[in-house]
Backbone:
């Protein structure tokens, strides 16, 4: 399963044995490169970046580190090793051999899933393209670029499936991936969170903690797919996702450490004084957390979804760790508790588990999000500060599903439009919050130096010191 790097498109799928497919992907490649040049990291085409490149899909020794100019990054096609005799783990086809070709009757929903997944990858690169201009350190800049090239590769992963298995429609969908753009009013990205701006590094760290984590849960569900090439692709993508969430979790942690340090030094929790000292106060952190969490919850779709039920029943998309769940894996009679707004309160009602597939995945996601919050709160406590960050209620600030039409406070009360309007500035980032955070974003590009608002990481990358020159600019 080692990757062949002698070809124009590195791969471990024997691309050279399928000339037609190889030619089709080689024809898409220049369009991708043009897109990267126009909408990839701004002004960074010529930087030498200390990047990790996958060289094998084995767990040991699968990466190579070295300076690379991003346009020279070897984007390619890597699938996890096939599992001998793999069978479909859920739905109507449970127990049947996994599909190596697209089942004709499921062609359209399968394509839709792959397109939706693929669309998010270049979207995130577009959203993050201006951040390089305001990096808090070279260490952070390098991690941003590492994530960007990997999201680019995730696009390649989905484009490969479209080209290899969906003929002409697939090629058209692959082209359209480079035509929709994050936040474009005429041709937006498919899912809401991927049209939101990522205007500064606080938004970016919360995005990689919360929105990349949706990626983890969606990819894990697709890694259960009865369509084996999709399952194997997503399994490999998941190994890269872990690093994206690490960047988010440690980024937020380092901001909190710095803030708490200054709170202790100045003996104050007054946001104005803390802001004047160049750190981000905790209420502001909470408001940004509220925003990114709520838009990420929307990514799981409606609480009750016939799409979700169909994906499951037909074996296209499973649950998180499907094979570890102990039930019939068909959900014919099972129920699942789903939160819904009733006259004056939010209550849980038992609903058919099949329809509640999206909600169940959201439940798994929420539990996982809370783990990082616990670690952040422990750090805040350790530094002698008496305040915690909390995840807002799942119904807070939602645009998709049953809560889209009600106003709900972060603590889960249904409130009137008036109360919402009066309080929203305490719950979600205000224009002033954005302006303040943006004002902190002065680039720091001296090796080992950090911006005022963030603590240094506890170690460097791949055994290198924190003060290593992770990015070389040549100017
Ligand atoms: N915004 O029946 P429903 C990642 C639409 S992140 C806008 O509930 P379904 C990454 C929905 O499409 C992982 N529209 O939908 C992270 C449907 O449209 P139609 C991305 C939305 O299909 C960071 C309608 O509402 N991967 O990898 O059950 C950086 C009815 O809804 C939204 C995937 O999402 C929304 N938030 O569930 C880089 C996996 N939510 O049919 C990368 C693939 C729903 O009425 N996608 N709608 O036109 C899926 O599995 C499903 O499409 C969804 C939606 C879970 C997203
Ligand atoms: Fe990704
Ligand atoms: Fe990611």
Residues:
């Amino acid at each position: 399963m080692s990757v062949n790097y002698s070809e124009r498109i590195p791969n471990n799928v024997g691309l050279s044995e399928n000339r037609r497919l190889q030619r089709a992907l080689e024809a898409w490649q220049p369009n991708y490169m043009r897109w990267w040049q126009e909408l990839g990291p701004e002004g960074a085409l010529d930087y030498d970046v200390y990047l990790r490149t996958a060289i094998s899909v084995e767990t040991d020794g699968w990466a190579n580190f070295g300076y690379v100019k991003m346009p020279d990054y070897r984007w390619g096609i890597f699938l996890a090793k096939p599992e001998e005799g793999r069978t479909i783990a859920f739905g109507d086809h449970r127990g049947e051999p996994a599909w190596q070709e697209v089942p004709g009757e499921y062609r359209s929903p399968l394509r839709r899933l792959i397109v939706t997944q693929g669309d998010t990858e270049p979207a995130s690169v577009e959203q993050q393209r201006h951040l390089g201009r305001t990096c808090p350190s070279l260490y952070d800049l390098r991690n941003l670029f590492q994530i960007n090239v990997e999201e680019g590769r995730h696009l390649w992963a989905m484009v490969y499936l479209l080209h290899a298995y969906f003929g002409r429609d697939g090629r058209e969908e692959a082209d359209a991936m480079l035509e929709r753009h994050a936040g474009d009013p005429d041709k937006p990205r498919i899912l809401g969170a991927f049209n939101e701006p990522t205007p500064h590094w606080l938004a970016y760290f919360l995005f990689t903690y919360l929105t990349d984590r949706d990626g983890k849960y969606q990819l894990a569900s697709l890694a259960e797919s009865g369509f084996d090439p999709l399952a194997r692709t997503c399994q490999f993508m998941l190994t890269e996702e872990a690093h994206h969430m690490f960047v988010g979790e440690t980024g937020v942690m380092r901001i909190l450490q710095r803030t708490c340090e200054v709170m202790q030094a100045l003996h104050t929790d007054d946001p104005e004084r803390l802001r004047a000292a160049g750190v981000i106060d905790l209420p502001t952190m909470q408001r940004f957390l509220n925003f990114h969490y709520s838009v990420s919850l929307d990514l799981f779709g409606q609480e009750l979804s016939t799409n979700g039920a169909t994906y499951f029943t037909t074996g296209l998309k499973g649950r998180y760790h499907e094979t570890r769940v102990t039930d019939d894996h068909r959900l014919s009679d099972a129920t699942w508790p789903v939160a819904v707004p009733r006259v004056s309160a939010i209550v849980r009602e038992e609903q058919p588990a099949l329809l509640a597939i999206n909600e169940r995945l959201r439940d798994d996601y929420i539990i996982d999000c809370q783990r990082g919050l616990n670690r952040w709160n422990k750090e805040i406590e350790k530094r002698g500060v008496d305040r915690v960050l909390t995840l807002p209620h799942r119904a807070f600030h939602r645009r998709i599903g049953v809560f889209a039409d009600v106003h709900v406070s972060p603590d889960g009360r249904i409130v009137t439009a008036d109360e919402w309007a009066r309080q929203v500035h305490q719950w979600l980032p205000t224009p002033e919050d954005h302006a303040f955070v943006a004002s902190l974003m002065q680039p720091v590009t001296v090796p080992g130096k950090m911006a005022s608002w963030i603590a240094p990481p506890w170690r460097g990358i791949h055994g290198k010191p924190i003060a290593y020159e992770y990015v070389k600019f040549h100017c």
Remarks:
- The two ends are 40 Å apart (CA to CA).
- The chain has one domain: 15-472.
